[in-house]
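Re: [ENG-882] Designed sequences occasionally contain unexpected residues at chain ends

Forwarding the minimal case from QA. Structure tokens:
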């Protein structure tokens, strides 16, 4: 099988990402800069835009963000709610939840959406939530977030709801040029993501697709 050279694909990824960064609002750009300064890695700008578009596609009014300092995703998903609905951010890291709570306090006067930031591991908090009450769940950050959220997603999502796993190639913080799952520096996360990808693709409760957005975005729609 002939392989496509990596450099053109890298150029495409870079151009798309640069375009998304240019489209960021001043508030989002500031939030990204603050998180970066605090040494909290942020996800792809283009990927965050895609997640916001998914909100509109499914008519989401109830969203969960599970992540370690997922400031950019939280900002875009809140924006995608168009001033109504509810957003719940779950983060077990002290620094990450502090950053998200600061962001939500800043934005609370500009939206009628219900905002909640919870400092707890996903495996502890998600089982407490109502079943079939959510349209979109986004997962990022520490490896432990992924399996715990996947296990709860079939119960939490309504029919047609989506769970989006960011950084499924375990490359957060790496360049897109010529890097594969086997090259990922975080071996524990890479191994966990391989198994998660296999499990989700074989799960008959979901229809799934792996996309090249960001550092790999796995989308699973509840049947």
């Amino acid at each position: 099988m002939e392989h496509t050279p990596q450099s053109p694909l890298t150029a495409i990824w870079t151009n798309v990402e640069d375009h998304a960064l240019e489209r960021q609002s001043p508030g989002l750009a500031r939030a990204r800069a603050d998180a970066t300064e605090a040494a909290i890695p942020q996800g792809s700008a283009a990927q965050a835009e895609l997640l916001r578009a998914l909100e509109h596609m499914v008519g989401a009014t109830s969203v969960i963000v599970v992540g370690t300092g997922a400031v950019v995703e939280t900002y875009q998903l809140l924006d995608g709610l168009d001033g109504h609905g509810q957003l719940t951010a779950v983060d077990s890291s002290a620094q990450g939840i502090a950053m998200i709570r600061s962001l939500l306090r800043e934005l609370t006067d500009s939206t009628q959406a219900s905002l909640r930031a919870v400092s707890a591991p996903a495996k502890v908090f998600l089982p407490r939530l109502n079943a079939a009450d959510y349209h979109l769940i986004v997962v990022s950050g520490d490896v432990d977030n992924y399996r715990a959220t996947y296990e709860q997603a079939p119960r939490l999502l309504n029919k047609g709801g989506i769970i989006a796993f960011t950084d499924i190639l375990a490359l957060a913080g790496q360049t897109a040029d010529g890097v594969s799952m086997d090259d990922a520096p975080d071996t524990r996360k890479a191994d966990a993501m391989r198994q998660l990808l296999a499990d989700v693709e074989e799960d008959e409760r979901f229809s799934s697709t792996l996309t090249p957005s960001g550092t790999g975005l796995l989308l699973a729609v509840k049947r």
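QA comment: On inspection the terminal residues look reasonable. Residues 132 and 157 are 5 Å apart (CA to CA). Proposing we downgrade this to a documentation issue.
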